[in-house]
Amino acid sequence: MVLLSISFFYYITHSFSFVQTLWNVDDHYALLQFKKSLTINKSASEDPFAHPKVASWTQKGVGRSNCCSWDGVECDKDTGHVVGLYLRSSCLFGSLNSNSSLFQLVHLQKLDLSDNHFNFSEIPSRLVLC
Prior knowledge:
Layout: H1 2-15, H2 25-36, E1 39-40, E2 73-75, E3 82-86, E4 92-93, E5 110-112
InterPro entries: LRR_dom_sf (IPR032675), LRR_N_plant-typ (IPR013210), RLP23-like (IPR046956)
Main location: membrane
Protein name: Putative leucine-rich repeat-containing, plant-type, leucine-rich repeat domain, L
């Protein structure tokens, strides 16, 4: 019985030790800066079910300071770098320009900003990902 209890304790403590995903502090602040550069406006998206994913992005609160747990953000599980950003129909309104903090996300591989309104900004070529 004691061996079973010790084994169970080991399993529980080690099973949950990896739940907290690594995150990169530079990517975290780049995302917050990106959020700050735009406004949330329901009319910026045509989808009637549009949902402002960035509204939940914050640096405060239990579990919310980890940008890898934010809605629309995908991180590499080994490095914690942001590799995917899925903000389709997120009610984002504003301009994207050449000094956007998105350029600080150097490990970004996937990006979906469709169905938002960027004031007819010309998307810089280095922001277009295939």
